[in-house]
Amino acid sequence: MTAAPGRRSSTFTRLLRHGFTDASAAERLLDSADLAPLRDDPVLLDALGATADPDLALLGLVRLLEAQPGPGARRELLDTLISSKPLRDRLLGVLGASTALADHLIRHPDDWQALVMYEAHDLHPGVEEFEAGLAEATDAVSLRVAYRRCLLSIAARDVCGTTGVAESAAELADLATATLRAALRIAGAAAPEDVALCRLAVIAMGKCGGHELNYVSDVDVIFVGEAAEGADETNAVRAATRLASHMMRICSETTVEGSIWPVDANLRPEGRNGPLVRTLSSHLAYYQRWAKTWEFQALLKARPVAGDLGLGAEYVAAVQPLVWKAAERENFVPDVQKMRRRVVENIPVAEVDRQLKLGPGGLRDVEFAVQLLQLVHGRADTSLRSGTTLDALKALAAGGYVGRSDAAQLDEAYRFLRSMEHRIQLFRLRRTHLVPEDEAELRRIGRSLGLRTDPVAELLREWKRHAGVVRRLHEKLFYRPLLDAVAQLATGEARLSVEAARERMVALGYADPASALRHLEALASGVTRKAAIQRTLLPVLLGWFADSADPDAGLLNFRKVSDALGKTPWYLRLLRDEGAAAQNLARVLSAGRLAPDLLMRAPEAVALLGDGDGGGLEPRSRAHLEQEILAAVNRADGAAQAVTAARGVRRRELFRTAAADIVGSYGTEEQAAEADPGALVDRVGGAVSDLTAATLAGTLRAVVRDGWGDSLPTRFAIIGMGRFGGHELGYGSDADVLFVHEPRDGVDEREASQAANKVVSEMRRLLQIPSADPPLLIDADLRPEGKSGPLVRTLTSYAAYYRRWALTWESHALLRAEPVAGDEDLGRRFIELIDPLRYPADGLADEAVREIRRLKARMESERLPRGADPKLHAKLGPGGLSDVEWTVQLLQLRHGAAEPGLRTTRTRQALAAARTAGLITDEDAATLDEAWVLATRVRNAVMLVRGRAADTFPTEPRELAAVGRYLGYGPGHAGDMLDAYRRTARRARSVVDELFYGVTER
């Protein structure tokens, strides 16, 4: 019969209004023989419209009707569906949310009757009820059918809202418990002789152990076995292993009815490399001696679920004391946080933004944060010892370990994210934590969560909002209660006790928690706007301090800076409003002594750490620096004031360079650490060398102006030597220089010499006057005749000396000579004078090569400090700076005349030129470059950490750890750092032996 046009239009519109997206297809399905009488029934349409996906629910209903064995069964299903609202809501709800459960119903068309009605005790079934539902299963196939039937009832209550997400997760865990027991029963029935030999306990871990399982998830377990009375232990463990393996296969293997879920035993001692079953004593021996921090974190959720429950209880009782001592382990908090970061780093880039579980702001962030706080405070407070995330979060809030508002927001976010996860997995019963990209799937998920106006947009908005809450709170969760404990503003709220606050500070790496808490109190107490902003900043800053090797120093330095700048209007605003500034400051203040010392002398340099107009952390060009310093000198009243201004600029720029180096080495939340250590070394060397040259230029101008006015009676130039000439100065380097002058026309040479010497003397004095700014030491010992020779020579005198008396070591030293300040023409002519010496046309004679080698060997034996470990000496040790530089410089002396690329003062450029010229293999060049860069970074790191120069690794553990952090090694890996240095240096020394010393065998 053909419907009237008006009727079709009316039905079509009603279907759209009820949420159908393909109303034409829905009309055809409703016109089927079984449903035609009900096509206009508002009860059916309203029920379909209430589902997550009305199109899917209707299609599932039609398929289920077709699967019924006969007309009578179809009539019974339809009659019950229309007359029983509970069945209607549950059945259509499941059909509209899960194609997998719809498929189960098609294969087992009688199972819909399990949803007809519930007694009161059916609304919240537990393990006992699920065991009854699985009792008749005798093999893997029948177990799957029974399991799906039980799962159907859980899903029905879930999608109808009868149970919340936490209750559904608990029911899923109880069903898993019953399933493990049934699988073990089936395995035991197949091997009764094995059952007789052993006692086997199955310990649930992870979400199953925590009573918060997903619809589809690996079920993590650990097996404990003991010998039955009179049985041999070895045979008993083998029997238990066979039973455990069979039990795992029963659950995991794919059959005609699919699989249930994988049983994963990789959380056991030694992971997949360890035995599947261990005795209780074997477990304890492993945990007491070998276990890592993450293994104790995992044991938080351990719960006996199947097999010998008495043995399981013994296991849990034995390991629990070890779990609650885990927070006392060295580097406990950094280990846990590092593991979390590693999880995020291993997510494929294309999936990060869709990861509901592992991504930033995901479920794992909540779980890690809660577990960390449990381990820290659960030692003293047994109320926190729950394996269930939401129960633990509630207990943490009740005890004041987490702020109540923070806990409430996290609870809401966690429930929403878990609900999303459940709906995503329920659709096809597949293990996934990725938010789909398909709009139809997003629409179904949104509708299933009650978002009906614009399901896709609302779902994405709510997801991002909750993920943002988690991301914002999960770090602050550790620190905000510390502030509440010391600030004591809100009355009537539970707070951390002094002892609990101290425990948390210790766990976070603070060595002096009492002082740290006093600093927090000083910073955050009170009702001023300043204190309020500090309370906003400090939870994040404390986390960044704790991520360093010396959190105590970071917090103390922050208090000092805040005390110095707290009354300035821009300081706290900068930290609050500019994303990079606060994290950069935290890194700089906790990375060592040098940068904080430079900052404390002029705290306003904090402005450099921001994103805005403070200049940022990019190094400034030499021309820019020289222009600023000369302008300051010209404004000054007298040489002393002028040089003070120049030294102030130098101090500020040293801070800029050190801060950029630290931030580049550590990285930030927005930007990863610099991947190329050579780039960091070049940046520091270039910046410090340019700054030193500009400071000398300004000081020279100040001294000349103060003593002679506009013009000195002699032309005067400063030649950079050593690392200064090579653009490779470190933070603690002296300025190696030569001074050269040339009397002006008509000026007596003696007068010119006296003026030049006075300039040098005054420059050295002014740059070393004790003040708040670091001194700049000028070292002229590389001049002709060394310390015995005149401090300043004329260009003619240099020419005469080099022509007649120059020694091999002096030609060697001149390889690094480069004009840095003063008369440019005079500097250029000095370079023209020395080029034939340092790049001899005929290369080096054999005797000269032998002389250089003797000098190098003598230097190694005489200058290495007594008691120092040569293998860890970055300058003079095997494979250190001296080895690499002398090797490169020997190539320059030998081949510089023929190879223009070798005519450079810079070590890395000369090494690259030697490789290009075929004087060294690519592999050897890379080996030497790596060693030189590493040794240079070690020296820079030691200066940053200790505030004074040294060529060896520090021995104090915190300082050594700080050097390790700078070099990219996490907490507890200082030994790895030293081993890596030795390996790198050893490889470099092998190259040096061949290229420098002529040893032919490596």
Characteristic terms for this protein:
61% helix; 5-stranded mixed sheet; 1002 residues
Your description of this structure?
By secondary structure, the protein is mostly helical. The protein is built from 43 helices and ten strands. Strands 1, 2, 3, 4 and 5 form a five-stranded mixed sheet that branches. Helix 22 (455-487) packs across helix 24 (513-524), helix 25 (529-546) packs across helix 28 and helix 41 crosses helix 42 (957-966). The radius of gyration is 38 Å and the shape is elongated. The termini are far apart.
Could you give a short description of this structure?
By secondary structure, the chain is mainly alpha-helical.
Give the count of helical stretches: 43
User: Which ranges are low-confidence, i.e. pLDDT below 50, for 5 or more consecutive residues?
Assistant: 1-7
* Strand element count: 10
Helix share of residues? 55-70%
User: Mean pLDDT, as a whole number?
Assistant: 92
Largest sheet: 5 strands, mixed
List the quaternary state of the chains. Answer: single chain
Secondary-structure topology with pairs:
Layout: H1 5-17, H2 23-30, H3 42-49, H4 54-67, H5 71-83, H6 85-95, H7 99-107, H8 127-134, H9 140-159, H10 165-190, H11 192-197, E1 198-204, H12 206-209, E2 219-227, H13 233-252, E3 263-264, E4 277-278, H14 280-289, H15 293-299, E5 303-307, H16 309-323, H17 332-345, H18 363-377, H19 389-398, H20 404-428, H21 439-448, H22 455-487, H23 498-507, H24 513-524, H25 529-546, H26 551-565, H27 571-577, H28 579-590, H29 594-600, H30 622-635, H31 639-666, H32 677-708, E6 714-720, H33 722-725, E7 735-743, H34 749-768, E8 778-779, E9 792-794, H35 795-804, H36 808-813, E10 818-822, H37 824-838, H38 846-863, H39 881-895, H40 907-916, H41 922-946, H42 957-966, H43 974-995
Parallel strand pairs: 2-3, 2-4, 7-8, 7-9
Antiparallel strand pairs: 1-2, 1-5, 6-7, 6-10
Helix pairs in contact: 1-2, 2-4, 4-6, 4-7, 5-6, 6-9, 8-10, 9-10, 10-13, 14-16, 17-18, 18-19, 18-22, 19-20, 20-22, 21-22, 22-24, 22-25, 23-24, 24-26, 25-26, 25-27, 25-28, 26-28, 27-28, 28-31, 29-31, 30-31, 30-32, 31-32, 32-34, 32-41, 39-40, 40-41, 41-42, 41-43
